[in-house]
Amino acid sequence: MKIHEKYILRCIELGKNGLGTTAPNPMVGCVILCDNTIIGEGFTSPFGGHHAEVNAINSVKDKSLLKKATLYVSLEPCSHFGKTPPCTDLIIKSGIPRVVIGLKDPHSKVAGKGIHALRKAGIEVIFPVLEEACEDHHKRFLTFHLKKRPYIILKWAESADGYIAPTSELREKKPQPFWISNRYSKQLVHQWRAEEQAILVGTNTVLEDNPKLNARTWVGKSPLRVVLDRELKIPSDYNVFDDSADTLVYTNSDSDGPKQKGAEIQTIDFSRKVVETICQDLHSRQVQSIIVEGGAQTLISFIKAKAWDEARIFVGNSEFGDGIKAPVITAREIEKKRIATDTLRILKND
């Protein structure tokens, strides 16, 4: 492996430490190398804190070494003032002579300006390096800025014979909600919730299962709960309105039901391009990623609108014989693995 690729891979590894905390900033990783020795590392702090480059430079004990060091970073350094000063200013001030960048930043405030600022200051800039791997790592950030919508993950569990939920008769015999996947898969779902900014469900899923939609068995912030409730049918004492996480309810423009305590109510026109409208509104709210958990019709609506990037499907070992059929989806399978009694399939929408 070439040396530049080696350390950009390390940047990606470091950047993953920011998953679930950095948005709307990207989860960048940074490595500083001098005489083939790593003298500093860093990743993006939670939103409002230092960027990866600042954390990496601050971690260097002997700052005199920076004048002969190479800085590796997974995404182009910013050159504008936001919550923090431009990273390019600190890199230039530190005297670092060479910067290796994995991927150019598509954000309109950066988009090559960081590279230009570094080169103008006489710094050697090498890019792109492992561009495809960096694109995958920064997929949420890139989708948000290039497609003007959140990165969308569809998630559901289905029985071995292809049902997302059993018949009402079978549900009455079992406690609610009716689980298909095992406890290890359920914990993994809570990890995913802590990694993404929002989670979305339809009315029937809430009425039938009364889910909390928060992260309980994993350390991390619970996502914004997004609920589609066209006619404001969901009672105010349901779990999605508790104080464990924020809730956003999309309802029909002509609904005149009671305002739910502890939730923001957003009226939209359910008769016209609902998925696109929701994606646009979430984009305006700076939501970069969302998990769509169901039910079946909600998932199908996103599939039909071609508004999805990943599908994560758990297949349990039980059979229902009848019930609500799981969505049908065709895409490239990028991963398939066993989680105890379950099979997890991850599909990518290319």
From TrEMBL:
<dbReference type="InterPro" id="IPR004794">
    <property type="entry name" value="Eubact_RibD"/>
</dbReference>
<feature type="binding site">
    <location>
        <position position="78"/>
    </location>
    <ligand>
        <name>Zn(2+)</name>
    </ligand>
</feature>
<feature type="binding site">
    <location>
        <position position="216"/>
    </location>
    <ligand>
        <name>substrate</name>
    </ligand>
</feature>
<keyword id="KW-0511">Multifunctional enzyme</keyword>
<keyword id="KW-0862">Zinc</keyword>
<feature type="binding site">
    <location>
        <position position="51"/>
    </location>
    <ligand>
        <name>Zn(2+)</name>
    </ligand>
</feature>
<comment type="function">
    <text>Converts 2,5-diamino-6-(ribosylamino)-4(3h)-pyrimidinone 5'-phosphate into 5-amino-6-(ribosylamino)-2,4(1h,3h)-pyrimidinedione 5'-phosphate.</text>
</comment>
<dbReference type="Pfam" id="PF01872">
    <property type="entry name" value="RibD_C"/>
</dbReference>
<keyword id="KW-0479">Metal-binding</keyword>
<feature type="binding site">
    <location>
        <position position="193"/>
    </location>
    <ligand>
        <name>substrate</name>
    </ligand>
</feature>
<feature type="binding site">
    <location>
        <begin position="295"/>
        <end position="301"/>
    </location>
    <ligand>
        <name>NADP(+)</name>
    </ligand>
</feature>
<keyword id="KW-0560">Oxidoreductase</keyword>
<feature type="binding site">
    <location>
        <position position="205"/>
    </location>
    <ligand>
        <name>NADP(+)</name>
    </ligand>
</feature>
<keyword id="KW-0378">Hydrolase</keyword>
<dbReference type="InterPro" id="IPR016192">
    <property type="entry name" value="APOBEC/CMP_deaminase_Zn-bd"/>
</dbReference>
<dbReference type="InterPro" id="IPR002734">
    <property type="entry name" value="RibDG_C"/>
</dbReference>
<feature type="binding site">
    <location>
        <position position="293"/>
    </location>
    <ligand>
        <name>substrate</name>
    </ligand>
</feature>
<comment type="pathway">
    <text>Cofactor biosynthesis; riboflavin biosynthesis; 5-amino-6-(D-ribitylamino)uracil from GTP: step 2/4.</text>
</comment>
<dbReference type="Pfam" id="PF00383">
    <property type="entry name" value="dCMP_cyt_deam_1"/>
</dbReference>
<dbReference type="InterPro" id="IPR016193">
    <property type="entry name" value="Cytidine_deaminase-like"/>
</dbReference>
<feature type="active site" description="Proton donor">
    <location>
        <position position="53"/>
    </location>
</feature>
<dbReference type="GO" id="GO:0009231">
    <property type="term" value="P:riboflavin biosynthetic process"/>
</dbReference>
<dbReference type="InterPro" id="IPR002125">
    <property type="entry name" value="CMP_dCMP_dom"/>
</dbReference>
<keyword id="KW-0521">NADP</keyword>
<dbReference type="GO" id="GO:0008703">
    <property type="term" value="F:5-amino-6-(5-phosphoribosylamino)uracil reductase activity"/>
</dbReference>
<comment type="similarity">
    <text>In the C-terminal section; belongs to the HTP reductase family.</text>
</comment>
<keyword id="KW-0686">Riboflavin biosynthesis</keyword>
<comment type="pathway">
    <text>Cofactor biosynthesis; riboflavin biosynthesis; 5-amino-6-(D-ribitylamino)uracil from GTP: step 3/4.</text>
</comment>
<protein>
    <recommendedName>
        <fullName>Riboflavin biosynthesis protein RibD</fullName>
        <ecNumber>3.5.4.26</ecNumber>
        <ecNumber>1.1.1.193</ecNumber>
    </recommendedName>
</protein>
<dbReference type="GO" id="GO:0008270">
    <property type="term" value="F:zinc ion binding"/>
</dbReference>
<feature type="binding site">
    <location>
        <position position="213"/>
    </location>
    <ligand>
        <name>substrate</name>
    </ligand>
</feature>
<dbReference type="InterPro" id="IPR050765">
    <property type="entry name" value="Riboflavin_Biosynth_HTPR"/>
</dbReference>
<dbReference type="GO" id="GO:0008835">
    <property type="term" value="F:diaminohydroxyphosphoribosylaminopyrimidine deaminase activity"/>
</dbReference>
<feature type="binding site">
    <location>
        <position position="209"/>
    </location>
    <ligand>
        <name>NADP(+)</name>
    </ligand>
</feature>
<feature type="binding site">
    <location>
        <position position="179"/>
    </location>
    <ligand>
        <name>NADP(+)</name>
    </ligand>
</feature>
<feature type="domain" description="CMP/dCMP-type deaminase">
    <location>
        <begin position="2"/>
        <end position="126"/>
    </location>
</feature>
<feature type="binding site">
    <location>
        <position position="157"/>
    </location>
    <ligand>
        <name>NADP(+)</name>
    </ligand>
</feature>
<feature type="binding site">
    <location>
        <position position="87"/>
    </location>
    <ligand>
        <name>Zn(2+)</name>
    </ligand>
</feature>
<dbReference type="InterPro" id="IPR024072">
    <property type="entry name" value="DHFR-like_dom_sf"/>
</dbReference>
<comment type="similarity">
    <text>In the N-terminal section; belongs to the cytidine and deoxycytidylate deaminase family.</text>
</comment>
